[in-house]
Amino acid sequence: MAGARLSLAFLCFVVVVVASALAGGAGARKTVGEYVLRKGDFSVKITNWGATMMSVVLPDSKGNLADVVLGLDTIAEYNDTNYFGPVTGRVGQRIARGRFVLDGKVYHTYINDGRNAIHGGHRGFSKVIWTVKEYVGGGDSPYITLYYRSFDGEQGFPGDLDAYVTYQLSSPYVLALRMNATALNKATPVNFLQHTYWNLGGQGRGDVLGHTLQLSASRYTPLDEELLPSSGVVAPVAGTPYDFRHPTPIGARIRQVMGGRIAGYDINYVIDGEGMRKVAAARDGASGRALELWANQPAMQLYTGNWLNNIKGKGGKVYQQYGGFCLETQGYVDAVNHPEFPSMTVRPGQVYRHDMAFKFSF
């Protein structure tokens, strides 16, 4: 039965791959592969399926190597709904009822999360083949640049959009991620996010409740049961379980919050300051590994893997609830329906830029 399920999954993946290639235009031929960036004992594996980060391997305080990213064994398995490591778009996170108004015109996007749209629809940027534009696997600064042309009307979004994603390693133990997009002929909302699940103790090695977390965020946007900011309110974190202004174990107050209909964090923070600045810092005491996240976006979604439940991961590991956490820098959730939030509209000729840097230590 396991073999039959895998064959079926692979067949479905092939169908999606062919459809994606055909959607790229007449004569388009795209292939899916895995690309390793390596600098000493620090390595990152990327696939151009969804511009997905498949693994990050680095040492702990004793020099032992481990992969700190949750994921799956084969590219075919990444056609899933857990979003293990991809870039999501054209608009990551949720759009209420899959509907928004732009310049007086109503647009309807693909609904794939109850009554709402999430992460760009059922075939968002996480489920398409990106073109490898440049790839240097080794040397002083290994990198890969990926490109995707999103067409007018794709998943309901207006206008053609050129999107680029670059992953690059630098010393010491820094992974930079640069995402940009240009609207070609129509105004359109754009909100990319990177959806990697981190476990600094090593993927599949228990939960992350003991990781300490610090966020540069004194405010957050309260969300309703559908994980939408229906009130439009921006509230202080002081006196709430959402307060991570000082290093605090992720699990310290996790049972006091609901990420929708289940205990755990799935909440949007408003990041203090502007421009490229430190957003978050996390540390696993047992391994000594630590992560600093720097970014230039106004907000960040913290998600603690609330819905992970017996997920077969890499190397025979099984992921359970709270097996990883996501730090998703982004624009405000559902900003297309909230004029009081910073706009995510990109007009023709304008360039959307989203920069991140993951700085590891041990």
From TrEMBL:
Pathway(s) per entry: Carbohydrate metabolism; hexose metabolism
Annotated positions binding beta-D-galactose: 195-197, 266
Domain of life: Eukaryota
CDD domains assigned: galactose_mutarotase_like (cd09019)
EC number(s) stated in the UniProt entry for this protein: 5.1.3.3
Keywords: Carbohydrate metabolism, Isomerase, Signal
Single GO MF descriptor: carbohydrate binding
Record family assignment: Belongs to the aldose epimerase family.
PANTHER family for this protein: ALDOSE 1-EPIMERASE, ALDOSE-1-EPIMERASE
NCBIfam families named among the record's database cross-references: PRK11055.1 (NF008277)
This protein's name: Aldose 1-epimerase
Organism: Oryza sativa subsp. japonica
